[in-house]
Amino acid sequence: MKTVTILGATGSVGSSTLDLIERDPDGFEILALTANCDTEKLAAAAIRTRAKRAVVADEACLGDLRDRLAGSGIEAAGGASALMETAAMGADWTMGAIVGCAGLEPVMAAVEQGGVVVLANKEPLVSAGDVILDAAKHSGATLLPADSEHNAIFQCFDASRPGNVRRIILTCSGGPFRDWSSERMRDVTPEQAVAHPNWSMGAKISVDSATCMNKGLELIEAARLFPVPHDAIEIVIHPQSVIHSLVDYIDGSVLAQLGPPDMRTPIAHCLAWPDRMATPMEPLDLIAIGRLEFAAPDEMRFPALRLARQALDAGGARPAILNAANEIAVAAFLAKSIGFLEIAAIVEHTLDRYDPPAPKKLDEVLAVDAGARAIASERVKEYAS
Ligand code: NAD
Ligand code: MG
What we know:
alpha/beta, Rossmann fold, Rna Polymerase Sigma Factor, Chain: A, 2 domains, seven-stranded parallel sheet, four-stranded mixed sheet, 17 helices, 15% strand, globular, binds nicotinamide-adenine-dinucleotide, binds magnesium ion, DXP_reductoisomerase, DXP_reductoisomerase_N, oxidoreductase
């Protein structure tokens, strides 16, 4: 029986994680479930899974959570410090499924306790990769990647002999506007951008997939997680999302992980690791799929790919600035304050105007993140006015 905490339990990844856990009630015991403010979904999940504690990050939602949990025996808590304390309760297995850098401090709190920490939440790795990896080394925590591409690489990468790896190839669906001209993308609405052709995901990552910033963030995420040179990480467009990523070895062997485009497979891999567990996924039907296609990515139409590659190569504070500016720009796009093409433009503007020294500690990363958010927010106002 593993004790489990899910940070971001009401979102897309959090719900997929709960789905797997609820199919195996004897295998897992839920210590805590957290959300920002979705008290209805959080309370229902906590009651169903007999969680010990349910936490809302937004303290203003705590009263409502208490009402919903009245008489259940489940402890209700709220606010940033309750979230941190909960992440540090020492679960055997913690899922990091908060969206954005809001997940950074809770993930760090979990990593500092040791145990298995599963990272779906990629933004903290982008902004504070070294800080998180150092903390894991110190505490003995095991970090497992749930992002489907990185989970695929993790399954194919012989970590005992990294010198045998020639390249990592990240596959990218290309998103809903894969074949669109920049001109046509100018008038894209949030509704169009969140309608991903293959995956059902939260709004922020869906927009990131449409701009290809998701693959840019994943490029940096791969560089954090796997010991290969930056120029040995390639991106290939693969519209079917059946091959989740590949590892190319020096002898010409290329290993890939395939599966349905459903996050429950990589999450199950992390839940059972180093074992395997059954999932409700149908066996892969290659004959029904018929064709697997590949194409080169286009950095002209999707400048986020270029910006992310440059941020990775320059290092220091650049990835944290890239991520923070993108979070602000995506939120503004979803709020209809700016257009689709302005997302990458705001990220580039922020990178051009902000060049702080490389952050070495968590509070320094948070300061860079805040500085970049301020510049990006100013730019949003200029576009919106
Ligand atoms: P989502 O928007 O569906 O869910 C986000 C969760 O975080 C919710 O539980 C929400 O209540 C909580 N949350 C939001 N803001 C918060 C805050 N300020 N403080 C605390 N909690 C907060 O997002 P998602 O699609 O599940 O993605 C979660 C993370 O996993 C993201 O980093 C995303 O990039 C990554 N990811 C998602 C998928 C996917 O298929 N959805 C795949 C790979 C990686
Ligand atoms: Mg991914």
